[in-house]
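[Structure tokenization] protein backbone as discrete codes
[Encoding] learned vocabulary of local backbone shapes
[Protein] chain in single-letter code, fold in tokens
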Amino acid sequence: MVERVVDCRGLACPAPVLKTKEVLEKERPDRISVRVDNPAARENVSRFLSRQGFGVTVSEDSEGYLVVGSRLAGASDLAPGEEEILCTLSGPSGEKLLVLIGTDKLGRGNDELGQKLMTNFIKTLGEMVPQLWRLVFLNAGVKLTVKGSPVLDDLKELERQGVSILVCGTCLDFYGLIGEKQVGETTNMLDIVTSMQVAGKVVTVT
């Protein structure tokens, strides 16, 4: 059995996922242990390994987190390329709408008005289902996904209707909100960029 240990401590998003992906493609290990030092990297690497056909366990110690992936029976010996992963996750290209939200206020001018407009915008997104495929929150936009957000219930309802919600892990960490997220998947820039490639149309709100 081929086993590999990868140290990704100190690496910024999306480097831990990219380094793990490189090892899988070059060495095709049956078991891989990835050492990371922050919750965002832990979630991103765990999700990536799961998508590659690995059973994943996570432990925490004084050095951070250890993500261990063991190849499941029947899984391919070759890690699929990013395009294959995205096709599995997203459905047909050209049919789905992605909305990229990089702020917690809509428009420039009065902040109070901007917050009200953003709340109304999120509440109205339900009218775009089923065309609406994925919401991506980054920078100050991640504040809309945490405790106390006025649109939490609306986002959870969109998720219930099948809308995928991705939340930038680096951004959550920057604002000290990693433990406050209430909806969506913590993600990395690799997932965000490839999601934009797969979407039929991208709408950016900043």
